[in-house]
Each structure stands twice: as C-alpha cells, then as structure tokens.
C-alpha cells in the first residue's frame, strides 16, 4: 500500500487526490486484511488438521513450525503448503514493491 501511494505521489502528482481517494484507500486496506485473514485461516486449518504425538512445546512461544515438528507424520503436506503460501505472498509483495520503486526511479 505504501509503495503504491509513493508511486502515485511521485509519478502522477497531479492525479494523487483523484487516485488515492477514500474509496481506493478503503479497498487497499480491505485487500490487506482479507489476505491476512486467508493466510491465518490456512495456518489454523493446517495446524488443527495434523495429529500430534506430544503436547509439550520446548519454547515459550507456541509457533506453527514448532507445532508442525510435534506431528506424528514424517513428511507433512501441511508444512509444504504453509511454506508455499508464504513464498507466494512474499514474492507477490516484493514484486509489487520492486516494480513501483523501479518506476519511481525511472521517473526521477
């Protein structure tokens, strides 16, 4: 969201008010919240669909990778799915930020 805001502010300064209006900002916020909700739901479903061999976590924080290590199965499809979702989300964000800053540098 910040990369797009800066892109519009630098590359299209006269159109900034028209492009970054209340509706556009609301849509960006909704998109961020929905994508976070989807990732959270995928993590939750993946974690609760696994059978666990133990209930002792040897850390203060009970995080997803530590819970996956407690599963009874050796190769876990849930772990691969979680990693893939995170990679896709990170690459999507990085690509969008990189492209917007490349256009900004080209403009400046």
Automatic annotation (TrEMBL):
Q: What Gene3D superfamilies does its record include?
A: Rhodopsin 7-helix transmembrane proteins (1.20.1070.10)
User: By its UniProt entry, which PANTHER family does this protein fall under?
Assistant: OLFACTORY RECEPTOR
Which cellular components does GO assign to this protein? Answer: plasma membrane
* Entry keyword set: Cell membrane, G-protein coupled receptor, Membrane, Olfaction, Receptor, Sensory transduction, Transducer, Transmembrane, Transmembrane helix
Q: What is the recorded membrane topology of this protein?
A: Multi-pass membrane protein
Q: What is its main location?
A: membrane
The record, for InterPro entries, names: GPCR_Rhodpsn, GPCR_Rhodpsn_7TM, Olfact_rcpt, Olfactory_GPCR
Q: Which residues cross the membrane?
A: 28-51, 80-104
The segment(s) forming the G-protein coupled receptors family 1 profile domain are 1-108
GO molecular function terms attached to this record: G protein-coupled receptor activity; olfactory receptor activity
UniProt keyword Nucleus, yes or no: no
Sorted alphabetically, which Pfam families does this protein's record hold?
7tm_1 (PF00001)
This chain belongs to the protein called Olfactory receptor CHOR29
Organism expressing this protein natively: Agkistrodon contortrix (Copperhead)
Localization in the cell:
Cell membrane
């Amino acid at each position: 969201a910040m990369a797009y805001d800066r892109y519009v502010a630098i590359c299209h300064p006269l159109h900034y008010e028209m492009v970054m209006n209340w509706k556009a900002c609301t849509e960006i916020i909704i998109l961020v919240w929905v994508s976070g909700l989807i990732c959270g739901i995928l993590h939750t479903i993946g974690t609760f669909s696994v059978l666990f061999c133990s209930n002792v976590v040897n850390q203060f924080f009970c995080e997803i990778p530590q819970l996956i290590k407690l599963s009874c199965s050796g190769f876990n499809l849930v772990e691969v799915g979680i990693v893939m979702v995170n990679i896709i989300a990170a690459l999507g964000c990085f690509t969008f930020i990189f492209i917007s800053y490349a256009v900004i540098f080209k403009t400046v």
